[in-house]
């Protein structure tokens, strides 16, 4: 069985999107150099906690911008879904779809950044 070990997020407005993820999830970004493209590593938490880190870059030219999930949806574990949803709306993000509750591990709510990048 193969597990997800890295994610990559594309954005039209990189600075605005990074500010959203920093404000909502406390993620940290570090510019990756040398690189042929503008690229940032995404640190989502301490190495001794479960989870994965990823990458962040400007949407490649010619890649279609679709309103909705166009390739991949990542799930982010948070302490409080209600507090997180408040931070999402405070940073101009949107809460999408209905809240789903799962008896063994809690609930989910899909949100999107101000530019419609979705996370679950």
Question: Low-confidence runs (pLDDT<50, min 5 residues)?
Answer: none
Q: Strand count, sense and closure of the main sheet?
A: 4 strands, mixed
CATH architecture label name: Roll
Q: How many helices?
A: 2
> Which shape, going by the Cα principal axes?
globular
What's the overall average pLDDT, rounded? 76
Structural Rg:
15 Å
Q: Span from first to last CA?
A: 22 Å
Major sheet strand order: 1-4-3-2
Regarding CATH, which class?
Alpha Beta
Output the helix-strand order: EHEEEHEEE
The CATH topology name reads 2,3-Dihydroxybiphenyl 1,2-Dioxygenase, domain 1
Spell out the CATH superfamily: 2,3-Dihydroxybiphenyl 1,2-Dioxygenase, domain 1
Question: Can you tell me the number of structural domains?
Answer: 1
Strand content: 25-35%
Q: How many DSSP-defined strands?
A: 7
Structural class by helix and strand composition: alpha+beta
The helical percent reads 10-25%
What can you tell me about this protein's structure?
By secondary structure, the chain is α+β, with helices and mostly antiparallel strands. The protein has a single domain (7-62, 69-119), classed as 2,3-Dihydroxybiphenyl 1,2-Dioxygenase, domain 1 (Roll). The protein is built from two helices and seven strands; from the N terminus they run E-H-E-E-E-H-E-E-E. The protein has helices at 14-25, 81-90; strands at 7-11, 28-31, 39-43, 54-58, 94-102, 106-112, 118-119. The strands form two sheets. A four-stranded mixed sheet has the order 1-4-3-2, covered by helices on one side. The chain has a three-stranded antiparallel sheet with strand order 5-6-7, with helices on one face. Strand 2 (28-31) and strand 3 form a beta hairpin. Helix 1 packs antiparallel against helix 2. The model has no long low-confidence stretch (mean pLDDT 76).
């Amino acid at each position: 069985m193969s597990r997800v070990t890295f994610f990559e997020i594309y954005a039209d407005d990189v600075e605005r999107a990074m500010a959203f993820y920093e404000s909502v999830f406390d993620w940290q970004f570090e510019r990756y150099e040398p690189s042929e493209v503008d690229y940032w590593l995404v640190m989502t938490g301490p190495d001794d906690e479960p989870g994965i880190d990823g990458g962040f870059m400007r949407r490649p030219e010619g890649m279609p911008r679709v309103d909705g999930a166009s390739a991949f949806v990542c799930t982010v574990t948070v302490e409080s879904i209600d507090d997180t949803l408040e931070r999402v709306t405070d940073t101009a993000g949107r809460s999408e779809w209905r809240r789903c509750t799962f008896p063994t591990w809690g609930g989910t709510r899909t949100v999107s950044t101000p530019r419609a990048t979705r996370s679950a």
